[in-house]
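Run log, item B.
One chain of 183 residues. Sequence copied directly from the ordering sheet:
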Amino acid sequence: MRFQAPTFTYSIAEPGVANASLTVGNDMFADFVLPNVCNPLGDLLTGFVEMITCPKHLWGEDNVVRIVWYGEDEQYNWELEMFEENSISVKVSQVNDFFGDEGVELLSFECQLDELLLPIIQSLDTFIKQTGLLNYQQQWQKDEFPLTLFLFLKKHLIDNGRWNRREAQRKEILNDEILMLLA
């Protein structure tokens, strides 16, 4: 089933806890509260990179990536499958019993890869520029921001004409950190 383009948000609500949401259209959404027992950004971005760099669907194989995000008492299972023409199927379910297989489907939709990837990378681009890599590390208190994966996916969007480059804003913490790195 085809829906309007998704939106994605991500923020660190308090030390070691992130809030994320994925919305499709007016009535399909999933909100996530994610403690740092998992690496939600690293896992999600790794999944996208795997689908792009190893396009199994071109060889007649299933190009499926499964990602698990852990909440306090639940887990969120993502299943992304890429088809011809960069079309993907997205299914997100919630399981409240870690040892059970019964889950509640939160989202199920199809779109073009870049229609999902663009809002995720845009949201993370704004987030990391405002937060900075050092602050991310201090606030998340576990894994580093998955910078290499993020840059790979941003370059993918640029190469496909989906991302417009702009001049850096002086108020961005990440810009200051990069200048410090180059000093």
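Observations after the first pass:
- The chain has a mean pLDDT of 89.
- The chain has five helices and seven strands.
Flagged for discussion on Thursday.
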